[in-house]
Amino acid sequence: MTVEKLTDSGYTYIGMDHFALETDELSLAQRNKTLRRNFQGYSTHSGSDLYAFGMSSISQTDSVYWQNEKDLKEYYALLDEKKPAQRKGYLLSEDDKIRQKTIMKLMCDLELNYKAMSNLLAIDFIRYFSEELDSLKNMQSDGLLVCNEEGVKVTDSGRLFIRNIVMHFDVYLKKDSQRRFSQTV
C-alpha cells in the first residue's frame, strides 16, 4: 500500500525502503545503471572513498574498511595523545571484491546479467557462483526473483527482500543465514 502511494505520487522505488522522485539524480542513476550503495545508503558517486570521523565510525576505500574506537573515553584519549583512532581494519581479498561488486550490482540494478557480470569480473560467473545461484531457487518459487539462463532479476515483491537476496552472495553470512534472515524481515 505504501509502495503504491509513493509510486503513484511520482516516486521511483529504488530498493529496500528507499524512494526518490522520478527526476531525482538517484532515480536517474538507477535507470542508467550507475547507482551505487555503501553502508550509509544509495549514492550516485562511483568509486568514492568514504572517510568517517568520530567514535565508532567506519571508513571505506576500494580495498580496505576500518573502524574507529567505539569507547568514548578511549576515543578521546587517543585523540588527546595524537594517536590514530582506528581500532579495526580489514583488507578485502579478491573474492571479497568479486562478491562486493556482485552484491552492489544486485542491490542497485536489481538484476544480474551473467554475461555482463562475467565480463565485468573476469570470471565465469555461473561457475564461480553456482552454489549461490542454486540457493536462490526457493526465492524464485516465492516470487521474489526471476532466474533464467541469462541472469537474475528481482521482482517488485523481491525489492522489499533485497537484503535477504544478496545475503546468498555474502560468504561471511552463510553459516548464520537462518538467524539473520529472521532479523532482516
TrEMBL record:
Family matches, as InterPro entries: Coproporphyrinogen-III_oxidase, HemN_C, rSAM_sf
Single GO molecular function: metal ion binding
Gene3D superfamilies reported for this sequence: 1.10.10.920
UniProt keyword terms in alphabetical order: 4Fe-4S, Cytoplasm, Iron, Iron-sulfur, Metal-binding, Oxidoreductase, Porphyrin biosynthesis, S-adenosyl-L-methionine
Principal EC category: oxidoreductase
Cofactor annotation: [4Fe-4S] cluster
Chief location bin: cytoplasm
Cellular component terms (Gene Ontology): cytoplasm
Every HemN C-terminal domain range: 92-161
Localization per record: Cytoplasm
Its EC number(s): 1.3.98.3
GO biological process, one term: protoporphyrinogen IX biosynthetic process
Quaternary structure and partners: Monomer.
UniProt-recorded name of the protein: Oxygen-independent coproporphyrinogen III oxidase
Species: bioreactor metagenome
